[in-house]
Amino acid sequence: MRLLSKKEIENYLGKYGLFSGKAGNACIDKVKYIGGISQIDNMLAEKKITAATPFINLTMRPKGLEITFMLAFENFRIGLLYNQMNFWSIKRQADMKIKKNRSIIGRALIGSLLFGPVGTILGGMSGIKDKEVNINDVDNLLLYSITLNDTEHILIFSCKDKHLQSVYSFFKENFNNLFKDISELEKANNSTNDNTSIDQLMKLKELLDANLIDMVEFELEKRKLIG
């Protein structure tokens, strides 16, 4: 998948006429990017942008979905054709409390108990003070599966509770037949592999939200998981 200009997007996905009744079918600045698009992932890893920087717009076009990353002086766009789309799902995150400890053993133990193998990345961290962290209102996760060149890719976004209904309604209206309940996916994943890349990426996000890892560590581990 490559980044496209506005003109390239219109050539690739088409454009609704002003009086078509379908123009303006969009979800504006309701989600934040987590991973799955290599060019954007590289920008994050190289600190050219941060996860919080871009405004992200999801816009329907005649042949598919446009995803626009809006920055102060530049926009990045990707286009997804209908026939490339497999499914979408939403994962709601539960509240939790974790205890951070100065001890490397303590941190590794916490990591293994809460986050499985991802906990091992805590081992090299230092200077973490003792404190209890409340992880309330952790982002909900939007999972979006596409197939490009016979390879499945999972695009992952987050959204706050206050935007969840808007995001759900947008995808329900436009991709109702592609919805999969998260429990279906988790059941299928668990039957083949107890530690899927999606699960591990969600656990990494929890570590990031808890300030147990920084963005650099998050991006390094994320790239190992999703390639």
Secondary-structure topology with pairs:
Elements: H1 6-13, E1 26-28, E2 32-35, H2 38-45, E3 55-61, E4 64-70, E5 75-81, E6 85-91, E7 96-100, H3 104-115, E8 131-135, E9 140-148, E10 151-159, H4 161-175, H5 182-192, H6 197-209, H7 215-226
Antiparallel strand pairs: 1-3, 2-10, 3-4, 4-5, 6-9, 7-8, 9-10
Helix pairs in contact: 6-7
Brief description of this entry?
The chain has 227 residues and is an alpha+beta fold.
Summary tags:
alpha+beta, 4-stranded antiparallel β-sheet, globular, 227 residues, 2 domains, PH-domain like
Outline the structure in words.
- By secondary structure, this protein is of the alpha+beta class.
- The protein folds into two domains: 6-93 and 138-179, PH-domain like; 96-135 and 181-227, no CATH class.
- It has helices at 6-13, 38-45, 104-115, 161-175, 182-192, 197-209, 215-226; strands at residues 26-28, 32-35, 55-61, 64-70, 75-81, 85-91, 96-100, 131-135, 140-148, 151-159.
- The chain has a four-stranded antiparallel beta sheet with strand order 1-3-4-5, with helices on both faces. It has a four-stranded antiparallel beta sheet with strand order 2-10-9-6, with helices on both faces.
- Helix 6 (197-209) runs antiparallel to helix 7 (215-226).
- The longest helix has 15 residues, at 161-175.
- It is globular, with a radius of gyration of 19 Å.
- The two termini are 14 Å apart.
